[in-house]
Write a structure and sequence with these properties.
mainly alpha; Arc Repressor Mutant, subunit A; three-stranded antiparallel sheet; 58% helix
Length: 122
């Protein structure tokens, strides 16, 4: 498991600050799009594997094609794990990977920031 490092935001090394900016940009690219954060939040709430059909029902406004596309991207980026069970009819479950669960503190911080922003902007 990765250890979260404290950042010295007063760092005088412009290369280090550039690396932080690039890492943040990369992370945001993995999570960008209308549905990925919504999917991740549903998977956090599920606290374990969830079937495709249940996930689809829990996300208002998403169509099946878009959900499949977003899930494939999240799987490719190692945020979720897809498990297919060899049975008829097919059973497919999704859950957060270790890397997905590691997003928890960042997601919490973003939620708190968004709520603070919403309150201040009124």
């Amino acid at each position: 498991m990765t250890v979260i490092q404290k950042r010295d935001w007063n760092c005088n090394d412009p290369r280090k600050r550039q690396q932080w900016a690039e890492a943040t940009t990369e992370a945001l690219r993995v999570l960008e799009g209308k549905w990925k954060i919504v999917i991740i939040c549903q998977l956090f709430a599920a606290k374990g594997p969830i079937r495709f059909s249940s996930l689809e029902k829990q996300i208002d406004g998403i169509n099946q094609k878009m959900l499949i596309q977003q899930l494939k991207q999240l799987e490719k980026d190692h945020i979720i794990i897809r498990t297919v069970y060899p049975q008829v009819p097919p059973k497919v479950e999704y859950e957060l990977s270790d890397m997905g669960y590691a997003l928890g503190p960042s997601m919490q911080a973003l939620i708190e920031w968004a709520e603070m922003r919403r309150t201040r902007l009124g």
